[in-house]
UniProtKB/TrEMBL annotation:
Source organism per UniProt: Leptospira ellisii
PPM-type phosphatase domain location: 55-252
Protein's name in the database: Stage II sporulation protein E
Pfam families xrefs: SpoIIE
The entry's keywords: Hydrolase
TM stretches of this protein: none
A molecular function (GO) term: phosphatase activity
Gene3D superfamilies attached to this UniProt entry: PPM-type phosphatase domain, Tetratricopeptide repeat domain
Length: 425
């Protein structure tokens, strides 16, 4: 089993923007035919795939339930199914046309469908992430795994400390996975690790009595003491006490090599700056036609600033030029995928020009991130009505009605009158 897991494990990756290194130590060690090895349920994997014409790193950190052989069995199943998903994506053009959000949801669903067949006897906690090395966008799903830790400017903090999903394989895991999107900035370091980082047997001062660590913030303090260095962090964990479980920690460092400022932000020239400055002045005067002309001239000189695409999309929506608005919106979201609001505006513009499949794609991306966004759900209901997709129409409509009822109930509890502001037409 130990030998079978090895090909499914990858611990290191490096390019000009990103460096990933990992620690993987299984608790159970053994010796077989003069060779030392270890076996357990932790798994780390780093893979590369292409989605929508962009390259992504796929990062997996998983912890299968059970000790030694039982945990290793879960890790083996997890690694095998995950590797099959990766290989299929690398070979299939249809899979490569998926958005990052769609790919993550499908990956989670396939893993869940496999593990749920074990009827709860094999569970896995995991973080599955897609990382865009160009923009620093990190799309992730957390299935009851310890929270990711962001180390920035000498301070460590939990990234999105919220439990949204139960472990993979949990039979009552009916909730749709919510995709979290974070933006890593230059010199950021991200840590993803199993619960072995917290399962430390500590000693009381001036006593031989031991106790199990229950302070999840201990890991944050150790990250800060190590200055975000993995080798030092591993030593500090060992010095803190006895690690009682399998331990895996992945360190993702983003753009840690500082470049001179003039290389980061190339100048677009005086003409470009003049056009943008004049366009800003005109937009304050609400002269949208003149502003659009100036911004389009500036865009012809340089398209380095995503904000120009955003402003042009807004102007085109005001002018009801939805075809241009959709084009600018798509360009903006490609360059700056963090703007949830503009996923909606881009989808709305595409709906107006009857590009329904693409409109659904953007709206579903937003639903993956914000499943309770009522405006987007109403928009999706209309899209599925227009495309004649009755099952999706009924499903989203049912969800929308439930959320509206919950909102109205909360508003009534607060003694607020919402009758003048109907939510669902």
């Amino acid at each position: 089993t130990s030998l079978l897991i090895q090909p499914l494990t990858s611990l290191r990756y490096s390019d000009e923007n990103t460096k990933i290194e990992s620690v993987l130590k299984q608790k159970k060690e053994f010796r077989f035919r003069s060779k030392n090895s270890e076996i357990g349920g932790d798994l780390c994997s780093i893979q590369e795939i292409t989605l929508m014409g962009k390259n992504y790193l796929v990062i997996l950190n998983a912890d299968a339930m059970g000790k030694s052989i039982q945990g290793a069995g879960g890790a083996l199943v997890m690694g095998t199914v995950f590797k099959a998903i990766i290989t299929r994506t690398q070979l299939s053009r249809s899979n490569q046309k998926k958005t990052p959000e769609k790919w993550l949801k499908d990956c989670y669903t396939e893993l869940q469908n496999v593990f749920v067949t074990f009827d709860g006897s094999m569970l896995v906690s995991a973080v599955i992430a897609l990382f865009d090395r160009e923009t620093g966008a990190l799309y992730s799903i957390n299935a009851e795994h310890p929270w990711m830790v962001l180390y920035r400017d000498g301070k460590a903090a939990f990234l999105d400390p919220e439990l949204l999903l139960r472990k993979i394989g949990f039979t009552e895991n009916a909730a749709e996975p919510v995709i979290r999107l974070f933006r890593l900035e230059p010199n950021d370091v991200l840590f993803i690790g199993s619960d072995g980082r917290d399962d430390i047997l500590l000693k009381r001062p001036d006593s031989s009595e031991t106790f199990m660590n229950e302070d999840e913030t201990l890991f944050l303090r150790l990250v800060e003491l190590s200055n975000g260095e993995l080798s030092d962090l591993e030593k500090l964990l060992g010095h803190a006490g006895e690690i009682t479980d399998d331990l895996s920690i992945m360190r993702i460092a983003y753009k840690t090599e500082t470049e001179p400022a003039f290389q980061k932000i190339p100048s677009a020239g005086d003409e470009y700056n003049s056009l943008v400055k004049e366009g800003i002045q005109e937009i304050r005067k609400k002269n949208l036609k003149r502003t659009r002309a100036l911004f389009e001239q500036a865009l012809a000189i340089s398209d380095a600033d995503p904000g120009l695409f955003k402003q042009l999309a807004r102007i085109c929506i005001h002018q009801k030029d939805f075809s241009s608005a959709a084009g600018y919106g798509e360009s903006y979201v490609t360059r700056f995928p963090f703007d949830n609001e503009f996923l909606y505006y881009t989808s709305f513009s595409l709906r107006k020009i009857k590009e329904y499949p693409k409109a659904i794609e953007y709206a579903e991306r937003l639903r993956s991130r914000e499943p309770a966004n009522l405006r987007n759900l109403k928009h999706l209901v209309e899209l599925y009505r227009l495309t004649g997709n009755r099952s999706k129409f009924r499903s989203i409509m049912s969800l929308l009605k439930t959320l509206v009822a919950e909102k109205e109930s909360k508003d009534e509890d607060r003694d607020e009158d919402v009758s003048s502001e109907p939510i669902l037409a």
